Structure formats: C-alpha cells, structure tokens
Amino acid sequence: MRVIFMGTPDFAVPTLQAVIDAGHEVAAVFTQPDKAKGRGKAVVYTPVKEKALEYHIPVYQPVKVRDPEVIEQIRQMNPDVIVVVAFGQLLPKTLLDIPPYGCINVHASLLPKYRGAAPIQWAVINGEKISGVTTMYMAEGLDTGDMILKEEVMLDEKETGGSLHDKLSVIGAALLVKTLNMLKEGTAVREKQDDSLKGQYAKMLDKHMGAIDFNEPAEKIERLIRGLNPWPSAYTKLNGKTCKFWLADVDSSDYDGVCGEVVRVTKNDFVIKTGQGGLIVKELQLEGKKRMDAGAFMRGVSIKEGVIFGES
C-alpha cells in the first residue's frame, strides 16, 4: 500500500519501521517542526524524522497540517492510507477523507478508556492492571473513531511510564501492520466506541504535576513516581533544592509526626510519613547530583528522623 506516515516522538518510530519492513511504500513522512533544545539551543530532529531520513523518505514539517496548501499537497501524493501515531496535531475532515482506506491511528490505550495525549502514564498513575493498544479509523473528535484491533498487556508490579511506553510501542507497530493487511484484504471490522465506558481523559503531562503532596496516601504517591518516570518525574524539596524520587515502596504502617517527615532510617532506605502509610524511598536524585540508590545518597547527604521533605 502507498502510505503517508504522520508521527513525531519515539513511540511512533517502531511503527514506521514496521511499515517499511512490511514492504509498504512510504511516500512521505509528516512530523512536527524541529525544536531548539538544551543550553546551546541546538536544533534537534524529531525521532520520526531521523528514522525517515535513514530510508531517504521525504519529510514534511508543517506548523499546521490543516492549512489548505498542505492538504492539497497530501491529496496530490495519492496515498492509499494515512497512518497516524502520536503526531501531535488534529486532522481536519478534508484530510481524513483523502485516502480510500482512511486515516488509521495507533493509540496507546484500550479505547474508549484514556482518550487523550498521555494514556500510558495515566494508566500507571491510576493503578490500572491492564493496558494495551487500539488501532482505529480516525474521526474529527479526539480518539473517537471506530476501532479495528486491540491488544492487551498486563502491567508489572513496578511498571513505569517508560517501561510501558516501550512495550506498547512494539505492540502497536505489529498491530498496525496487521491492521493494514486486513484493510487491504477487506476484512477489517469497524467497532463503535461505547462512550459510557470512556473513563478518564488522559490529559497532557506537564512538569508541575510531578510535585509530591505528602498528604496523599503512600500508595498514590508511589504510583505517581512510577507513572512520571522518566518524564516529567516526581519531585519534592530538600533543604531548598529539588529532589526527584525515582523508585519507592509502600509501607502500610501508621507513623506519628507530620506528613513529609522522615520517620525511619535504615542503611539502605528511609521512610517518609504520608497521609496514609509511609513511603519507602529507594532511589532519588538531588538537584545537581546523579541519580542513585538511597543508601549511596545517604552517604553524601545526612538523612535523619525528623528531616522534612517538601519544605523550601
């Protein structure tokens, strides 16, 4: 099939690779504009652009894919299908109507649950036991189109946003190739989404949501730490410096003291009192320092009972 691929981040790269490996003709890749990053403000290509250039595939980076001249450009390319994976822009109906096989999206949740920009991280934060990938026909609404295929995956006990991202990106790539084969054979089904089951909207992540509130239950904080690992990360303050937490366990014991207070210290970890139970801190990173396990951290930073996290 003649494919136009639209995607931007790392999550989309395995799917682009799978489409190429399956022998489909990728006529063009559309991705978000390059951005300047770091202190030197060097321009960095999107991961999808880097992969496309490896195969000498033409790359287009319109600020707005809905602009009439961009839509006409796509129309002239005569795609059989448009594949969309974490592209970062909504597609207008005039664009959705161009390919005869439709615009097919790979979404990292079991729709209709977790429509939105960050379904992977919210599944971990909310304590889901099962997640997965859905391929779907795109519609004008956000993640509202008819579903084609789904594949489930069980979350590990210590699943992070990063580890689930990697699992689902691989699953999504294989599922998309299977979906394209079904489209070509005329065997693809259309299953409407049941809006009564849509659940929470998976809003976009930002750095501020990583601020730890020690008045919350330890179980909820521990899930937040895993869900926001590796980005944007869960954090607090220690002696006025930002301190990121990367790994923790839950202690169901009740402790005296105030929320945010260190209530127990061992050789290898320490416990912070929360609104319900204690948070056993296993791995953390102080501003300007490397990420390390709690034992190594405490050999360089004094952590004693009574120390308060969260105070600036």
Average pLDDT rating = 96
What is the element string, with H for helices and E for strands?
Answer: EHEEEHEHEHEHEEHHEEEEEEH
User: Residue ranges: pLDDT <50 for 5 or more in a row?
Assistant: none
**Alpha-carbon distance between the termini?**
58 Å
* Gross geometry: elongated
Strand percentage lies at 25-35%
Query: Any idea what the radius of gyration is?
Result: 23 Å
Strand order of the largest sheet: 5-2-1-6-7-8-9
Major sheet attributes = 7 strands, mixed
Task: Describe this protein with a few key phrases.
6-stranded antiparallel beta sheet; alpha/beta; single chain; 312 residues
Strand and helix map with partners:
Elements (H helix, E strand, L loop, with lengths): L1 E6 L5 H9 L3 E6 L4 E3 L4 E3 L2 H8 L4 E2 L7 H9 L4 E5 L7 H4 L6 E5 L11 H7 L4 E8 L9 E8 L6 H25 L32 H10 L6 E5 L2 E11 L10 E4 L4 E4 L4 E9 L5 E2 H7 L12
Parallel strand pairs: 1-2, 1-6, 2-5, 6-7
Antiparallel strand pairs: 3-4, 7-8, 8-9, 10-11, 11-14, 12-13, 13-14, 14-15
Helix pairs in contact: 1-6, 5-6, 5-7
Structure description:
With 312 residues, this protein is α/β, with parallel strands linked by helices. 25% of the residues lie in helices and 26% in strands. The chain contains 8 helices and 15 strands. The strands form 3 sheets. The chain has a 7-stranded mixed β-sheet with strand order 5-2-1-6-7-8-9. Strands 10, 11, 12, 13, 14 and 15 form a 6-stranded antiparallel β-sheet that branches. Strands 3-4 form a two-stranded antiparallel ribbon. A hairpin with a 5-residue loop joins strand 14 and strand 15. Helix 1 packs parallel to helix 6, helix 5 packs across helix 6 (161-185) and helix 5 (119-125) packs antiparallel against helix 7 (218-227). The longest helix has 25 residues, at 161-185. The chain is elongated and about 70 Å long. The relative contact order is 0.11. The mean pLDDT is 96.
